[in-house]
Amino acid sequence: MSALHRSVDERGSLPDAESHSEGFRLTREARRGAVVEDYVELIADLIEEGHEARQVDIAARLGVSQPTVAKMLARLTNEGFVSRRPYRGVFLTDQGQKMASEIRKRHKTVEAFLVWLGVRPETARIDAEGMEHHVSEETLEAFRAIMTKMRM
């Protein structure tokens, strides 16, 4: 179903242009931030596992080239999410650690909700990897609330 059809209200008419465009704007914004969030989350995961977050490992796990990783690490450094030391790995700044924590929480909520719905854990993990960047805080709270209510 196209975005146009999904946006039609119960009366069969489109919302006003301003509110209609808000959804598309938020989606574009989430897409731009998703790559940054993926890198920060992976760096946190590598460090937590007791490994250094090295450029070669990041490239292998994300399935991208090392020059791509180098370019993104420069961006993440400039934006204050990571610090790098010569001949050492990549480290998260306080700002990067905060982002990683928030993304993990979002990921865990989406993944738990999908499993709660009956999705296989492996599929839920993969699906949550993309959904975590696009779901609103309001929706995450609804996921948490229904799971809590239904556990009673």
What do these coordinates show?
With about 150 residues, the protein is mainly alpha-helical. The chain has a single domain (about 15-150), classed as Winged helix-like DNA-binding domain superfamily/Winged helix DNA-binding domain (Arc Repressor Mutant, subunit A, Orthogonal Bundle), CATH 1.10.10.10. About 70% of the residues lie in helices and about 5% in strands. The chain is built from seven helices and two strands. The protein has helices spanning about 5, 15-50, 55-60, 65-80, 95-115, 120-130, 135-150; strands at about 80-85, 90. The protein has a two-stranded antiparallel ribbon with strand order 1-2. A hairpin with a 5-residue loop joins strand 1 and strand 2 (about 90). Helix 5 (about 95-115) crosses helix 6 (about 120-130). It starts with a helix and ends with a helix.
